[in-house]
């Protein structure tokens, strides 16, 4: 008998706690739609009480997602639970995930509460959450450093209060697989009525063992894993969804459970999250790294050619590598473009946004012979879907670099509808371009990150640029894509400035 393993994705909540990974509502919606397509059971869409923007994003996600449960995090306080309850209200399946710390260090130093008060708060939060939904999850924050007897007491109390899922987090990434598996086993053995609830695990990666610890918990009875795409998350991140899902699928001989994830959507989801958050995926990252299925040594190549399974335990196509379909070309019309957007789950704001995206598609098709799904995703992500304002718009750009001479750039921008031009020198053409833009806009921002990734292969591929800017404690990511990386860089810079202009950043949820 194979049990169901519930995949609870927290990319939009814990993942967003990665420094600088804040997302706009539209970006969160795009990721949520892709997570639903991937087949995740629960989408933790945010932490409603963190900011009105977060609550609004959860509310919007709850309106459009049908097959996955939409969840909001809430501290064990009346205000948090009520705000979370309102945010998930439109959801077909909605969950409130309430938590309170249970370790001596957190109770004494952070909460300044006695163990009795903590139990009381946990029970009250669960009971209140039940007024909004019958799907209530409770987490004992810092369970890894909590005393076992106290954990048993808290979990017993919240089961009696009506919680359906009990989450055991390794908040600080301190455990190792053997101990984490043992902790899950003991809890299930000792907590009364433990068979009436789903046991869940939530592991951080500070010692690089988040996925291994999660799997150890699964081997000892956990039937929900909380994880993120690309292992994004607070500090060193969370257990990575792709690693957990593929371990369970690949080692059916070991695990007695399975997920309902459509694994062929893994790579597309990873790329989308990476491009929106500006967190590149390291080439040797398991499953989703560019080299994860590349064989370099001659002996390995020879083996794989003779019999694939000599060196491959998974098939690249099963996780979505090589699935980038050649979809459209120079001669494709507007209707073909529109229906491909629909198949990709991309919803543009209105007909004008579609028209603008179609013009960019035609322009790209003139410069690039083959257009893949990734190109289309990028085409709409640097405008159309993600752009929130076009106060700053690129009208024209010229950049020149020559051996022995300082690179120069000329930029013409439309600022609030009025065209302005500037010329600048720089260390390279991108530096010159950013300086020319700054001469016009005088934003006073600090550049925190500049990264370029090629979207598909080949020298005619589009470069996708992420620029992270900060100003007065606000941090935003801007994206831009183009076959010319200087143009892509200028678009990304302006996208970030437009986000700052529209005020779409958000405070760090823990602040
Ligand atoms: O790491 C953690 O403990 C958390 C909880 C809120 C589940 O993210
Ligand atoms: Zn966490």
Descriptive overview:
It is a single chain. With 511 residues, this protein is an alpha/beta fold. The protein folds into 3 domains: 3-277, Alpha-Beta Barrel (TIM Barrel), CATH 3.20.20; 334-380, no CATH class; 392-502, Alpha-isopropylmalate synthase LeuA, regulatory domain (Double Stranded RNA Binding Domain, 2-Layer Sandwich), CATH 3.30.160.270. The protein has helices spanning 25-38, 52-64, 78-87, 104-111, 115-129, 148-161, 177-190, 210-219, 241-250, 266-277, 298-306, 334-343, 351-367, 373-381, 429-441, 485-502; strands at 3-4, 6-9, 42-47, 69-75, 94-101, 136-141, 165-170, 198-203, 224-227, 257-258, 326-328, 371-372, 392-400, 408-415, 418-425, 446-454, 463-471, 474-482. The radius of gyration is 24 Å and the shape is globular. It binds 3-methyl-2-oxobutanoic acid and zinc ion (ZN).
Identify the quaternary structure here.
Answer: single chain
What's the arrangement of strands in the largest beta sheet? 2-3-4-5-6-7-8-9
Helix content: 25-40%
- pLDDT under 50 segments (min length 5)? 383-387, 507-511
| Major beta-sheet overview | 8 strands, parallel, barrel
Q: What would CATH call the homologous superfamily of the largest domain? A: Aldolase class I
As for the CATH topology of the largest domain, it is TIM Barrel
Overall, the morphology is globular
Number of helical segments?
16
Q: In total, how many domains does the architecture comprise?
A: 3
CATH structural architecture of the largest domain? Alpha-Beta Barrel
| CATH secondary-structure class of the largest domain | Alpha Beta
* First-residue to last-residue Cα separation: 45 Å
Bound molecules: 3-methyl-2-oxobutanoic acid, zinc ion
Overall pLDDT level: 91
Count of strand segments: 18
Percent of residues in beta strands: 15-25%
Class by helix and strand content? alpha/beta
How big is the Rg?
Answer: 24 Å
